[in-house]
Amino acid sequence: MCIRDRNYLFLQISGRGLLRPITTGPGSLPAATYTGARELLVGSANTAFTLDGVTPGLQELTLDMGNESQGRFLVGQESIELPDPVPVGTANFEDPGVGSKDWFAIAAAATPVGLQFVHGAAAGNIVEVAADAVQLGPKLGYQEQDRYRHFQAPLRFLPHANGPLTITVR
What we know:
Blueprint: E1 2-4, E2 8-10, E3 47-51, E4 58-64, E5 70-74, E6 77-81, E7 88-94, H1 103-108, E8 113-119, E9 127-136, E10 141-145, E11 148-157, E12 166-169
Antiparallel strand pairs: 1-2, 3-8, 4-7, 5-6, 7-11, 8-9, 9-11, 9-12, 10-11
């Protein structure tokens, strides 16, 4: 998932699987309908972002689930395996100013923080990303965006009771 140019949310999913005979009947998926979904611009009216209880001005958020699938094609057994994924990402957000939050100390101490991103407000058109334990850094840095100072924070999603992160579409 990636937010860029302040206006668009991109969600790209790639998959790998085994071809099996196509059947109908019990257990088949229903026909997909997209009548409730509509395009929403990313912005304060439709989007919320929280990092360690703070709501900084978010410029960009990227996530990589770290799912490196491996095909195993053995005599008598074919499968697609997903070894332990390690989700990572980056967050580019505006520096709220000296004294509001010491992001460098949090990164240096490898302190896990919470992250929540919600886009959309109407049922059927909401995407939520939540993580209870995210490490910032280790190479937290500054970047200039439109003459404002931003933090460029690498993100590492740690294992947690609910998983490293959840993506909910509702």
